[in-house]
Design brief:
alpha+beta, NADH Oxidase, 4-stranded antiparallel sheet, about 50% helix
Length: about 250
């Protein structure tokens, strides 16, 4: 297991080999054992295999090729719809039409997604998380016909690896670990913690091809711009209101 975790990488190209229903059942049963708030399991997983459905979802993920090419696309959703119905059918009035409940369900969904991914990788499958799900949540809701109380929070493409890409860099452990209490970073700490990342050939290439002075500018000015963050934040807030979480 540690070999899998230490050596994991995102896979964006897959072979044509399908994933059997038997293997998926095994993986999903393992996923259902994930940690969950209050044992409520307020999440759902939408399994997409059909070509026509992948084609509908593809624009929601900025037409990244693996959405159409992967044999399987899984959309993990925060879901209080099922739990609310159970409550009402048992003479209990649910009070989960609020932001905290969305966060509870979203956390459940993310934990389930990661459990699935680790289980899938342990079987030799490759996975890739798509960060576009919350950007385009409203359109995904329409395509997948998600009812009130259900919001997509992340998507994972799954398949047998058709590539073995280089492993992406990570910050050193001391960048993310704080012992006993949070210890804020000095300018010297930041310089030290990001030095290796900034010196990588691929980082220098990103700076050059985007005509920027620093790697940080690639993130702030190109990849995750303030205007885009604000636009997608507004869209997601509207989705939460529409789906009954605000």
């Amino acid at each position: 297991m540690f070999d899998i975790l230490y050596n994991r990488r995102s896979i964006r190209k897959y072979t044509d080999e399908d994933i059997s229903d038997e293997l998926m059942d095994e993986l999903l049963v393992a996923t259902s054992r994930s940690s969950t708030t209050g044992n409520m399991q307020v999440y759902s997983i939408i399994e997409t295999r059909k070509k026509e459905m992948k084609e509908k979802l593809s624009p929601c993920h900025f037409n990244q090729p693996m959405v159409k090419e992967a044999p399987l696309v899984l959309t993990f959703c925060a879901d209080f719809n099922r739990f609310n119905k159970w409550c009402r059918q048992r003479k209990a009035e649910p009070g989960y039409d609020n932001f905290l409940s969305f966060m509870t369900a979203a956390i459940d969904a993310i934990i389930a997604a990661q459990t699935f991914c680790v289980a899938a990788e342990s079987k030799g499958l490759g996975i890739c998380y798509l960060g576009t799900t919350t950007y385009m949540a409203e359109k995904i809701i329409d395509i997948l016909e998600l009812p009130r109380g259900v919001v997509p929070v992340t998507t994972v493409t799954v398949g047998w690896p058709g590539e073995n890409p280089d492993q992406i860099d990570r910050l050193p452990l001391k960048a993310i670990l704080h012992k006993e209490k949070y210890c804020d970073y000095s300018e010297q700490d930041i310089d030290s913690l990001y030095a290796e990342k900034e010196a990588r050939d691929d980082s220098l290439q990103f700076i050059k091809e985007n005509d920027k002075e620093t790697l940080a500018q690639v993130f702030t000015d190109v990849r995750y711009k303030k205007a885009d963050n604000e636009t997608f934040s507004d869209l997601l807030l509207n989705v939460l209101k529409k789906q009954g979480f605000m």
